[in-house]
Amino acid sequence: MSAFSRNYGMCILFIIIGAVLGGILGELMKGMDIFSGLVPYLVTSYPVLDIAPSAINLYVIRITIGLSFAPNIMSIIGVVLALILFRRY
Length: 89
Fold this sequence. Notes:
Strand order of the largest sheet: 1-2
Shape: flat
Structural class: alpha+beta
Number of helices: 3
Radius of gyration: 18 Å
Helix content: 40-55%
Number of domains: 1
């Protein structure tokens, strides 16, 4: 395993964790009154990709596959912070 593939995988992991933590932080901010004017703009999801679920019936097993990508501003901020931390450390 080369150093390039290890760093690439770690970068993807940082991006995913940053997006998830940013989304969770946005949801936690919904309950705080201090951010009540700003939160609706930060947690509104913007659908970018939406592939409807399709089912494959193989008579023994049924597989349903679909994909939806709808980030919010807090998730994007989390990704940016994760990339900054990744570059720094």
